[in-house]
UniProtKB/TrEMBL annotation:
Pfam families in UniProt: DHC (PF09626)
Annotated protein name in UniProt: Dihem cytochrome c
GO MF: electron transfer activity; heme binding
InterPro entries: Cyt_c-like_dom_sf (IPR036909), Dihaem_cytochrome-c (IPR018588)
Phylogenetic lineage: Bacteria, Bacillati, Cyanobacteriota, Cyanophyceae, Oscillatoriophycideae
Amino acid sequence: MKPIKNKKRYLLLTIAIITIGWSTIMGSLTAKVMANPIGSKSVDKVADNYRVGKELYLENCSTCHIAIPPAVLPTETWKTILENPLNHYGTRLEGIIRFNQVLMWQYLSTYSRPISVNEREPKFIAQSRYFFALHPGVDLPSPVGHTSCVECHSRASEFDFRTLD
Ligand code: HEC
Ligand code: HEC
């Protein structure tokens, strides 16, 4: 057999493996999206490109506390959180795979704003001016944190920050 032909065959095989691998991953992600109960109830619709990232976010980030809406923290804070899963507010986030991290990042960075130059990166919601900007004139508890959202957003655990009762 000529080496050139072999190379071609090898290339085709690689392409086939990549294609099958990719569709398996996307297929299982879609199945997860369908199975996620919070996601289907979520009121804020996102563009199709970010749907899987949002579902992965809800799946990975709502088990210990409510999933925090991206808009209340700057993009830089989300980046720090995603990049440091083993150093998460005194705890460790295990089992976040790189591929999911990237999809979550695409969702979180798209639905948050960057901080200004020289501005300090907030670590907590209570330090984020974007959180306060979303609450003009609202009499907020002090300190405010992820456990206080539900006092006014009764459906916070369903990732619904529109309903106010
Ligand atoms: C293993 C449990 C666990 C998981 C899973 C988890 N967190 Fe946390 N998270 C914590 C703890 C504990 C705190 C500190 C809570 C406190 O101070 O009351 C925290 C705090 C936070 C805060 C600050 C909240 C505030 O009130 O200011 C943010 C933001 C946050 N987590 C984001 C995330 C994101 C994003 C993910 C998914 C990548 C995630 N968390 C997954 C345990 C977890
Ligand atoms: C004291 C009541 C109160 C608490 C506590 C509170 N909120 Fe709110 N929130 C409101 C009100 C009222 C609005 C509507 C403000 C407006 O539009 O002027 C609002 C609006 C929002 C919005 C914008 C919703 C949209 O789609 O436009 C987000 C996001 C949000 N809150 C997140 C949070 C999070 C996260 C927490 C917890 C860290 C929290 N809120 C705690 C009362 C509260």
